[in-house]
Amino acid sequence: MKVARESRSGYARDAFKLWVDADHNGCDVRQEVLMAEVVKKPRKGKDCKLTGGQWKSYYDGKTVNDPSKLDIDHVVPLAEAWDSGASKWSAKRREAYADDLDAPRGLVAVSSGPDHAKGDKGPAEWLPPSKGAYCTYASDWVFTKLRWRLIVDTPSVMRCASSPPAAGRRRRPSPLLRSHVPPSAAFRDRLAERGMPCTTIAARNGCTTAIPRRTCSDGQTVDAEGHR
Length: 228
Description:
two-stranded antiparallel sheet; disordered C terminus; alpha+beta; about 230 residues; 7 helices
């Protein structure tokens, strides 16, 4: 990641268009993330309204049975993205970032308490209440910064108390992202499951601290952007 000075000058949250239905299937990005991260399947009604179901909020380890009590969090907050490069993007690219369903962990469904406490903070200022989530959160943050080529203002080494991100469910590819940040074949293959078929091999103190490289099913290694 490039180290440079960040600036919040001119930031406004509405510079990022949120929760679009890019594939016109009746479900917006919030609903897509909820369905991707569900533990127990909810009922889907008119206009993709979800009732029932069960989720696990990894920030605090809580089980949530009501989708209205979950927030969809940008692991790298919109304000932080603005500070570190998004201020120079087009409106379409900012929309693609805000609604990124192609990345495995850029958007996560979490309980509202930790999300509100986090706000616009990064890992140097905030860590999840659950110590077991430290490494997953740090890895997700680094991955997102690399994926979108965002700068950091200071280098940091994240100390973790747990293993790297676990495998999870696949998300629906976003038509918006395909036109603005096209992933390579290796990258698409790696997104088959969160962390599958590739597993993190470059780590320090149990947590990714440089360009995360992964070894794939064909024996080759790729970085966060799918480069071999």
